[in-house]
């Protein structure tokens, strides 16, 4: 990775913690917890990562998540990610987790949130990283289960930044989850929704107008609808784009075909994120780097993308400004001043 990309202060806003489970940790946890896996080596695991669409990935991703059982497991998973992200210049991470993947197997939600939160605290202390936690509902399961999940999570309300919606998109429109998102907003939780990865522009409209989405995760197919693009530009609704994910799940055929440059030219707030980096061939730094190479982005354009990511965080304005100032110092080539900015 170039020194410029590595050092560029950035926020990661589209990252599923379960998607950071590296093959070696998966195998170690399988052993530690006595969970049988159909793989016996890292190369066997990696050989299974040939995906043709979102569902073909989700099948492998949910299977691997069965190895996560204890608070320590969730801590280890999360802290490993945070160390990698910090090394890639991530100053702020707003992290998704999928509680239903674990509670369905009998793992208490407190174990999941507790282990992840312990790691976020450790990263603040040891790495100086700022972070937040976003609870995602699985859209392939009924809305009533999402509501029950929200209710059980409210004992941990103080540890949550927001709610999201992920899993199999087509056939599961955002509008089905109107009630649970209304309840979450009443609790003051922020809202980010996966839409337009494989689903139609209509799902992006529903995410905005029915669920109150403040960010759209992916959003690629929004480009098919000019009125929608206009709405996203006028309101500066961030799109958290994931280039290597799009390549691996065949949303785009080649990285050179990725619409990110078009999105920038339209005036959309787009950021670069890693989604499920253990499965998609690279963490956030690799996503910046490979997208730069494929689309011939300049350092100024990369800095603009990092700026978008800072603006799109769910931080209070003053804290956002601290990050934006840090980015300005970096891009203007000045030496960091004594207070760390
Ligand atoms: N899309 C939908 N659901 C997901 C994803 C994704 O990219 N990653 C993990 N769950
Ligand atoms: Zn995602």
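Sequence proposed for the structure above (341 residues):
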């Amino acid at each position: 990775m170039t020194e410029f990309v590595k050092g560029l202060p950035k926020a990661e806003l589209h990252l599923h913690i379960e998607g950071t489970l590296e093959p070696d940790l998966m195998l170690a946890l399988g052993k530690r917890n006595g969970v049988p896996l159909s793989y016996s080596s890292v190369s066997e695991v990696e050989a299974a990562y040939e995906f043709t669409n979102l569902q073909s990935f989700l099948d492998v991703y949910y299977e691997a998540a069965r190895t996560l059982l204890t608070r320590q497991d969730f801590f280890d998973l999360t802290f490993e990610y945070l160390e990698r992200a910090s090394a890639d210049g991530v100053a702020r991470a707003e992290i998704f987790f999928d509680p239903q993947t674990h509670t369905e197997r009998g793992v208490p939600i407190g174990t999941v949130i507790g282990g992840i939160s312990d790691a976020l605290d450790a990263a603040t202390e040891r790495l100086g990283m700022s972070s937040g936690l976003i609870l995602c509902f699985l859209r392939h399961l009924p809305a009533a289960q999402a509501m029950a999940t929200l209710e059980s999570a409210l004992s941990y309300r103080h540890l949550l930044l927001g709610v999201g919606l992920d899993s199999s998109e087509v056939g599961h429109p955002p509008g089905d989850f109107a009630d649970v998102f209304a309840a979450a907003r009443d609790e003051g939780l922020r809202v980010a929704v996966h839409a337009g990865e494989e689903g139609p522009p209509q799902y992006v409209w529903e995410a905005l107008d029915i669920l109150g989405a403040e960010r759209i995760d992916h959003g690629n197919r929004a480009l098919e609808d000019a009125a929608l693009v206009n709405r996203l530009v006028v309101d500066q609704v961030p799109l958290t784009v994931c280039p290597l994910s799009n390549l691996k799940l065949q949303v785009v055929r080649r990285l050179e075909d990725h619409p990110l440059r078009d999105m920038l030219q339209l005036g959309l707030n787009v950021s670069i994120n890693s989604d499920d980096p253990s499965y998609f061939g690279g963490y956030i730094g690799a996503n910046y780097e490979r997208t730069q190479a494929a689309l011939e982005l300049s350092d100024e354009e990369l800095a603009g993308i990092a700026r978008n990511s800072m603006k799109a965080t769910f931080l209070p304005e003053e804290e956002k400004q601290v990050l934006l100032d840090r980015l300005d110092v970096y891009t203007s080539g000045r030496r960091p001043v004594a207070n760390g900015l």
